[in-house]
Structure formats: structure tokens, C-alpha cells
Amino acid sequence: MSVKNQARLLAFETLLEIIKGKRYANLAVRRALDGSDLSLQEKALVAELTYGTVRNQYKYSRIIAELVRKDVDKLDVELLVLLLMGAHQILNMRVKKYAAVNEMVNVAHKLKLHKFTGILNAVLRRVTPELEVELEAKLDGDDKLAFTFSCPSWILNEYDSSLKHWGRTDELEALLTANNTAPSVEITDLKTRCSRVLTSGNPASDPDIQQGTSIVQDSGSLRVTDRLITARIVDPEGEAWADFCAAPGGKALVLATFLEGNAKSSLTANELHPHRFRLLSDSMKRFKNVTLTNLDAREIPGRDVKFDRILLDAPCSGLGSIRRRQELRNVKTLDEVACLSALQVELFSAAVQSLKPGGLLLYSTCSPLLEETVNVVDAVLRTHTELEKIDEQQLWTHLDGTDSMYYCLLKSTLQQ
Fold first, then answer.
1. Which CATH class is domain 219-412?
2. Contacting residues for 212 by C-beta, under 8 A, at least 6 apart
């Protein structure tokens, strides 16, 4: 098998893991490339085939469905992945159609998926840029936007509702364009809390990261953490801080580094899931002022411990980070968002119960959806009237150059 076919075979295996196994694309690609002896050029081909196919999966699926006259969910997943890969090469990689078809047929043979070669030939030979334009021309409104930007209509509607809530009409297409643009790699200096862009090379080779003085972190995440830090001067007698959902540990590292110079202050970093807790433990082991807990954050109030400042970076849909986690658009559902919203309210309430009188609580999500942001805050405020909203902000990828993160800073008005 040619080297290029080896790259396509690896891309197929990686895509199958993402689509069938619902794995994170960035982790699946990294794992595949780290274990490969392909050249840098061929690794780049694997990355483009994988990320590009995932990013455009919704659009390609609609094109394929038109050609096979059935819902793609009814196709064998291995066949679907081969068709998606072929469509991406023809429509977005300037690969000659005959070459793309031939390469995908060869991959099918290599995988002993001989039964799919006929339909691969028949369908991929009909995939053309002209067909894409023709199908798009038949659509209008949200359905056309969904096809053009390869993003399900329900997500577009959620984005649009949030944009309008924040007074940003007619910006949906700008947001969708930004979501389809690969982000820069940003590095946070833990001491200065300044962010810089990595212009080239592997972040793991960056001297500051190797020395543990910097981390890879979206500048939006840094802005969220910085808002809690700068909300007011730390009490000279020390403060007890907590990060309720701390893994994988980026925000907790920023908080711990800030508190490191204050021997009277401490940080409790909590994480529920064992594998994520291990990641958190590895990153926090050098700090003497950090206590790690492996709990459901909803159980923390029962420990009868109170905090001066709490960060609740709640589990969410992640739909504010689609530009770096392209697979989310293909797997998230409205039902899942509803479940997450209910969990967010419960976690938020637990954080309020763990807050000292006069304490500060910062709630954040990597999502702009109203169901996970302002609606959650409003629900908690209706129950906990002792809270006062100090600051609230929704970041936007197309405006701020960050993930579309949300935060709300609140204060307990209870007296000591």
C-alpha cells in the first residue's frame, strides 16, 4: 500500500473512532499521529482528512443522503465514513475525482470491505461541486445556513437566540464563519496571567510549557479566571478558594499560582470523574496550598466547609468551543442540553450553599446557549435571593477571538 493510502487508512480508523465511538476528535487524532511513523506531510494529510471531514460531516451527510435516497443513519458506519472521506477530498481538498474514488476503493479493499466498493464507486462519482451548489440553491432560511456552514439547524437557532438576547442581531453568519476557522494555539503564563499565540511548532516543545510556567489555554478561559481573581483584593489574613469542577486543571492552575505567594490562603480543587481527577492530581501536585477532592460537587455543602471565592466552571454542551472541538456539532442534542441545564442549576445551588457570607461566586460555561447561561443564573437567583449579580459577560468567537464563553460573577449579601 502506498504511503498516501496508509495515511487514508489511518484517517479512516480515526474517523471511525470519532463517529462510531463518539470520541473527541483532537484526542483521537493526537493518539493516532503519536503512534504513527508517517512523515510530517502524511500526518498533515491525516489531520486534514479527519478534522475536515468532521467539520463538514453534516453537509456531506445531506449530500450523500440525496444520492443514496436514504437517511445516512441507515448506512453501515464503515461505509458512511468512507463516503464522507471521499466527499471531503472531492469538495474541499482539490483531489481529482477519479483519484479520490480510486483511493477510497483501495482503502475499502485493504479493510476487507469489498462489499462496499460498488456503492463507493457509484456514489462518489456523482459527488461534485456543482451538486453541492445545486442542493444549496434549493434551500432557504435556517436550512440553507445549516447546509452552508455544516451545522444543525437547532444549534443555529440557539446561537441566534443568544446573539439577539445580547443585542447582536445579524451576526449569526459571522459567528458560524468563526466557528469553522481553526483557532490559534494560545499559551498562558501562569505568573503574569498574560496570553500569547504560538506562531509555530508543537506546544509540547515550548520551553515555558516544559518548565511548567505556562500552559496551553484559550484566552477566554483566562479571562474567566482572571475575573474572579481581580474581583477584589485578597484578605491579608488569607482566603479559602474552591474550584468545584476543576479538571483538567487549567483554571485551577491559574488560581493556585496566584495564591501560591499567600501562605494563609488555600485552594480546594474538586473533580468527580476518576480519570479526570488523575489529570488534575498530576497538574496540581507541586502546590502546597492546594487540597484535592474527588467528589460530586453537589455533595460539598454536606462537608460543612465554606469558601470566600468559588469558581464553578460547570459541565456544559461545549458549543462555544466548536472551532476546536468540531465533533460537538454532530453529537450534541437539545435533550442533552436540557439535562445539562438541570445539572448546572443543582451545582450552582451547591456552590451557593458553600459560600461564606460576603463571598464571591463565578459561574461559567464554554457555551453561549441561553439554557446554559442566563437562564441558569436566573433560576438560581429566584431561589437564592441573597445573591447579588456583580458582572455578566458573554464572549463571542467572531468578536473576541476566544471560545464563546460565558461568565457571571455574584456576591453573597449575607452578613458575617
1. alpha beta
2. 286
Compute the average pLDDT of residues 229-255.
96
Q: What does DSSP say about strands 307-313 and 355-365: parallel, antiparallel, or unpaired? A: parallel
- For residues 416 and 403, what is the distance between their CA atoms, to the nearest angstrom? 38
The residues near 90 (Cβ < 8 Å, ≥ 6 apart) are 97, 100, 124, 127, 128, 129
Into which CATH architecture does domain 3-138 fall? Orthogonal Bundle (1.10)
Closest alpha carbon to 402 in 321, 311, 326: 321
Using the CB atoms, write b or e for 147-183: b if 16+ within 10 Å: bbbbbbeebbebbbebbeebebeebbeebbebbbeeb
pLDDT tens-digit series, residues 16-70: 999 998 889 999 999 999 988 999 999 999 999 999 999 999 999 999 999 999 9
Spans of all domains in the chain: 3-138, 148-179, 187-217, 219-412
Contact between 50 and 17 under an 8 Å Cβ cutoff? The reply is no
Q: What is the pTM of this model?
A: 0.94
